[in-house]
Amino acid sequence: MADRLVNLGGSQVNISKVARDPRGVEDLLAEAIGEDWQENRFLQFDERLFPYADALDMAEWDGFLLERYPPLYPSLQRECTDCPLGPCSLGVGRCGLGLDTYQARLSLRRACRGCVTQIADSRELVDYALRNFGPDHPISMGQQQDRSDYTAIGVLTGQHVSCLGELNIALSYAEGQMAKLFASSYTVTTGAAALEGTVFHAGSLLMLAQDAAEFVKMSCLGFTNAADKNLEDLIEYPTATTQAGMGGLEAGKPVIAFVGDSVLAAHETVGLLLHQGLAEKVEVGGVGPAGHDIIRFYEQGRLLAPMTQAAKFLHTGLADVVVASNGCLTLDLVGETARTGSRLIWVSPQPLGDLPDRTDDPAEDTAADLLNGAQGAVIRLPQKAAEVAVKVATGLKREGTHLPGEAAIKNEAGRCRDDCDACFRECPNSLPIGTALRSIAGGEPDAFNRVEEGCFFCHRCQEVCPENIPLLDIIAATLKRRAPQDRFIIRAGRGPTSRSESSSYAFGSMWGNCPGKAYIAGCGDAKYLGDLSWIARELVSRNCLVWVAGCAAAEVGRYYDSEEDKHLYQLYTAEAQPRNLMNCGGCTAHAHMLDESQKYSRTGSAISHYANLSETAERMYNLFPQALIIWGALPERMYTIAAAFARVGVPVIVGPSSAFSWDRYLVANKWDWQHWFVHETWGGRKRFIEPTPKHLIVPVETKEEAVTLFSTMTMRATDLRDSRQIRLETYTEFNEKFFGGFPDDIQFYISSDWELPLRYKGKLLKYLADSKGWETQRMKILKARHPDGRMLTLDELAKDYSARTMHVTYIPRLISQVPEGGEVNK
Amino acid sequence: MKMEKPRELAQWLKEEGSGLFMAGEMCNEIEFNGKSLLDLAADIARGLGLPVAATGNTMRGLRERGIERVGRLMAAEVGAFMRSGWGDPITAERPSTLLLLGYSPGVARRLVTAVTDARTAVLGPAYVEEATCSLPDLSVKAWGQYLDELAQAVKQGA
Fold first, then answer.
1. Which of A701, A711, A771, A772 is the best substitution to test chain B (most B C-beta atoms within 10 A)?
2. Crossing angle of helices A590-597/A636-647, nearest 10°?
């Protein structure tokens, strides 16, 4: 194979020496090197490229993470049934499979399930765009993004995609990788940690697929895109005027509700309504991802409910026509619409129950049948599905409700026994269902409100009720009663963060006036309505930059300030600066959050992200103050999203109750101080450091735990003094406020008097002296205790137990190759 | 092991020396006729003389109830610390028994499964077969009575 040399400043890069097997991708690597590399880094480090990467290509980085944060498996499955030799009780299976590796297999399967539904959705979008626009159609993340901006596609493939044809190649790569990962989840017999690296990889592939979907949505379907705007336009972009919640539905108008991932039928439906002048006569809304997508191209669209509430919403029968597709969560669409009389149009390519496939039938015929009482139809063409949906919605007359009234509910509640409470034991959110029922029977008709708000509609309570009380009907009836008050204002999704934004906030977020960058995701509120908006408000009001996406993005808007007469999105502006709240969009917009999280490696450290995940992620892990909070996670997709963020150095906090059903956490022991070290980039010396971030994926029970943990998870080994000070201030404040004292591990994070937050300085010094044995005098630290027990001056401590402001690495090849005082030899 | 009688459980708990009581967020949410689950958690931990790992938001309430050997942890940290030599100053040695109260049955099952080389006792209202010992399935009312009797029994030295 002939060497291919690329000019880089005064140097030449031999592609075959920086990539293992560059055959077939020489041109894209040459482009990435020529246009995005910095000569200085090439000269100093052993730079490598991993185009169209396999999971094992990232082992140098994944391995570090999994050694520092070993997998903890709280799994209940102890028996393997994966092959005909089984079942095997583990122990060790007949194939040599151990229990931990089996748990890692389950973890990978869960991640694959989370990823594959997104890949299917993205494939549908890309194919639709290819058919309608052709492979040469240009695509872009926005005019204010350039090729140096990070994308999950660039980091995994090395490709800068600029047209649909290139996007198709990138998505095909993800599909091929997914097949390999799925096979691994049944065949790998040893090495749990290595297998967890493939879970990370599933996360990265999910982000690639979400990037692909967003490219199509913004470049072909007219979705909002902040990176197409000038900086001065972003402060209120898009304007916070979107109606969210079921209460926004106008009484008397027919409702078409879209459920699931696919937005194509909704896009066609809106186009048809506008074309036919029916937009004012029909309500178009969406549940979950579909809802978030609709409001990015249709101002009158309604965002009805998050996925945590999807099943419950369907059970109310508020929708006249349900247009559904595959999505993150499996719903009993056939059962629910049969119960409510809503008409169902299924637009995905898989069969759904006994619904007839009417894709090739004339729309008029299908609509007529649905109007005459047929329950639903499969219509796989978005345009035809839209035509039928509009005809049915405008012609359908539905009367009455299957849900019980107040008297009937009281009657049913009277059958609840106080010696049972099987529903309470079974409820994943531990909702006091039996207690509430007995209160209704005792004359408190509103007693079920609290239960309804925290209910995911998992059915378990009704399944175990020995009296067969129709709990689901009672819950849905309670929701239907609440629905008119369920209304709040949000800002629709904005899409990506522009280059000028990310450059302008980079310093604002690093120099001591911002505790960190918070990413908030999740499938909706969990046990308590309002948790998500509380979390967002606590963080944004303390000067964090807060990005939200997915179903959580709407729920954060619930907070209402009665004095200002404003909801949360109206209280805070929306540019990427401290104390701003930015809604990226629906589920596929999680990719914008992750892409945004990785920008600083290029902006601040000149690290090109193309085919270069390890180096990019390590820089972010070492330096940048950010963490992801996932609240109310239900489907597997959130598990995979967590893996994606964790892999690139963004620690993940998940909660509340539903997070404890995850298959694996990545948690470390902060007290094991020898576990925490780095290598100096210049010379490779090993240095012990504070335990930060102290976990990589960890569950919490309460929102107070979440924000408090956030304030330490944003600390980084190489923090600057002022930024460490504000993080310590927030950490101390949250601990005092919610738990009544100083954190027991705060001594790890202090290496200078100047880092002590001023408003706590005196108290903290006393605490350090009294509780940790430090020597202090007035407002000074004289000696601090090293974790090994020695008392050291702060200068000595900084030399021995800190990497503050230093350039450090965990990857051996990134220890500089330049000899001290020597010449570069490349 | 299913512990039908509070006194039996009290006896079992007293037999073990180095225990750690884990009090979860549900302690802040449940009341039995004016007495909170957190009151009972404090009574039982005090009766057994155990240090308490306050998870969720239980730290402040436990201190207010006079529990002195209490530290704030996250529930998953206990499993992580247990597998890597412990180290948390709440108790000098690695606990050999964990008592869990204030977690939903599903969460408790997961937490005890993540713990190796230690006995576990789940004091929730549902039988958790993965634990070394557990209460049987109980109604809310019966659960409150059980815990009340358990608190009395441990106070009296079983």
1. A701
2. 10
**Residue A70 Cα, gap to closest chain B Cα (Å):** 9
Which residues on adjacent β-strands are paired with residue A72?
Answer: A665
According to DSSP, residue A497 is labeled P
Q: Does B83 touch chain A (CB under 8 A)?
A: yes
Is the CB of A133 inside 8 Å of chain B's CB atoms?
A: no
A88-89 vs A677-680, strand pairing mode? unpaired
Identify which of B74, B85, B109 has the shortest CB distance to residue A672.
B85
Residue B57 and residue A435: Cβ atoms within 8 Å?
no
Instruction: Give yes or no for a contact between A768 and A745, defined as CB atoms under 8 angstroms apart.
Output: no
B56 vs A contacts (CB less than 8 Å): 701-702, 705
Name the phi and psi angles at B36, rounded to 5.
-85, 160
Note which residues in 677-706 of chain A have CB less than 8 A from chain B: 695, 698-702, 704-705
Residue A705, token pair as written in the block: 């735990």
How many CB pairs lie under 8 A apart between chains A and B? 130
Q: Tell me which residue has tokens 């949505």.
A: A217
Beta carbons of B25 and A665 less than 8 Å apart: no
Residue in chain B closest to A433 (alpha carbons) equals: B140
Which among B25, B80, B88 is the nearest to A701, CB-wise?
B25
> Can you name the residues that pair with A216 across neighbouring β-strands?
none
Among the partner residues B29, B75, B140, nearest to A421 by beta-carbon distance: B140
The two tokens of residue A170 are 């990138």
List, run by run, the mean pLDDT of 10-residue segments along chain A (826 residues).
89 96 95 95 94 97 97 89 89 87 95 96 98 98 93 97 98 98 93 94 98 98 97 94 95 96 97 97 97 97 94 96 94 96 96 96 98 97 98 92 94 96 96 96 95 94 97 96 96 94 79 91 90 98 97 96 98 95 98 95 92 97 95 90 98 92 95 96 94 97 98 94 94 98 96 93 97 95 96 94 93 84 62
Domain with residues A248-395, CATH architecture = 3-Layer(aba) Sandwich (3.40)
Q: What's the CA dihedral at A123, A582, A698, B29 to 10 degrees?
A: -120
Q: Which residues of A touch B80 (CB under 8 A)?
A: 72, 665, 667-669, 695
State both tokens at A545: 């930059």
Q: Chain A partners of B72 at a C-beta cutoff of 8 Å?
A: 735, 739, 743-744
Cα separation, B108 vs B102, in Å, equals: 9
Domains of chain B (ranges, CATH numbers): 6-155 (3.40.50.1220)
- A402-405: long-range contacts at Cβ-Cβ below 8 A with a sequence spacing of 24 or more? A402/A317, A402/A339, A402/A340, A402/A341, A402/A473, A403/A316, A403/A317, A403/A473, A403/A476, A403/A477, A403/A480, A404/A470, A404/A473, A404/A474, A404/A477, A405/A477
Amino acid found at B33: N
All structural domains of chain A with their residue ranges: 52-228, 248-395, 406-469
Question: Residue A166, Cβ neighbours under 10 Å: how many?
Answer: 19
- Dist CA A188 CA B94 (whole Å): 34
